[in-house]
Amino acid sequence: MKASVDQDGCISCELCTSICPAVFSMNEDNKAEAIEEDIQEENLQEAEDARDACPVSVIDLEE
């Protein structure tokens, strides 16, 4: 499973980084980014929770 963030749509709320810091972090532009592109099995549920919680739906998880 791979994670990606549409940084153009990111509103810098940091919700994803608080839910799943193993996969998401804030970059130098204060936008969320995927730091673990290939999500490890132990982080998958939190990554899905972060995607579902994103208020602007800019997180994508795909096989």
TrEMBL record:
GO molecular function, one term: electron transfer activity
Keyword terms of this UniProt record: Electron transport, Iron, Iron-sulfur, Metal-binding, Transport
SUPFAM superfamilies recorded: 4Fe-4S ferredoxins
Domain 4Fe-4S ferredoxin-type: 1-29
Keyword Iron: yes
Keyword Signal carried by entry: no
Function as written in the Swiss-Prot or TrEMBL entry: Ferredoxins are iron-sulfur proteins that transfer electrons in a wide variety of metabolic reactions.
Protein name: Ferredoxin
Species assigned in the record: Ruminiclostridium papyrosolvens DSM 2782
